[in-house]
Amino acid sequence: MSEKTDEFIYQVKQCVQEPNPPAYASILWIARFALIGFMLCFISPYVQRIEHLIARHYWPNRYQHRQHHLYELILTKRAKVLLIEEGTKL
């Protein structure tokens, strides 16, 4: 090798640090949090259903009001669909 190449390699070795091995513990923590977040995306609808069951147990009047509101909402949407199918605008 030439003298310039040796000098260049020497300068690079002084500036560049030796690489460290990857921190596997940190990677595992990140993977765990990502997995938990991914699972929560699929579990959250079921948790919301359980919340409604608990609320229904403690506040039955509010549950009846909510149930009536949702029923009226469904009927309104069905009426809009029927009117749109007939060609009439609401």
Automatic annotation (TrEMBL):
The lineage of its organism: Eukaryota, Metazoa, Ecdysozoa, Nematoda, Chromadorea. InterPro entries: CSR-E3_Ligase_Protein, DC_STAMP-like. GO terms for cellular component: membrane. Pfam families: DC_STAMP. Keywords: Membrane, Transmembrane, Transmembrane helix. This is Dendritic cell-specific transmembrane protein-like domain-containing protein. Residues 8-71 form the Dendritic cell-specific transmembrane protein-like domain. Its main location: membrane. It comes from Acrobeloides nanus. It comes from the Eukaryota. The keyword Transmembrane applies. It is found in: Membrane.
